[in-house]
Amino acid sequence: MTDYADFTFYSETFRGAAIAQAEFPSLGMQASVVIDQLTFGRAAAAFASGDPAVVAAIRSATCAVADELQAQIESGGAVQTEHVGNFTTTYLSQLSEDARLKRAARRFLGMTDLMFRGLNADER
Questions:
Q1: Is the pTM of this model over 0.70?
Q2: Which residue has the higher pLDDT, 121 or 38?
Q3: Closest CA to 18 of 69, 59, 86
């Protein structure tokens, strides 16, 4: 398994600020796994190819997903609805959380073929 981004990339290039340096290795690894799932394993080969534009897109997508994971942690989880007196709080469902991760990755990987659900010509 490849970690696609490190804290240096996150803080200096992506300019993220939501995740502390001590927390980034765990969230970065989890985000890398999400990227692998969303790209059907294509991200690892594309990252290893060394194409600067694709590598930057994968790293940025990883950082965006890590930020989204951090936001989901801070939001308190996937409770559907909570009632306390007249106060009601509705949290995201698991499906919504997954959709938000995919949307975060798609911002950077949408113009690549990495998230294509079908088979590319070289994958037959």
A1: yes
A2: 38
A3: 69
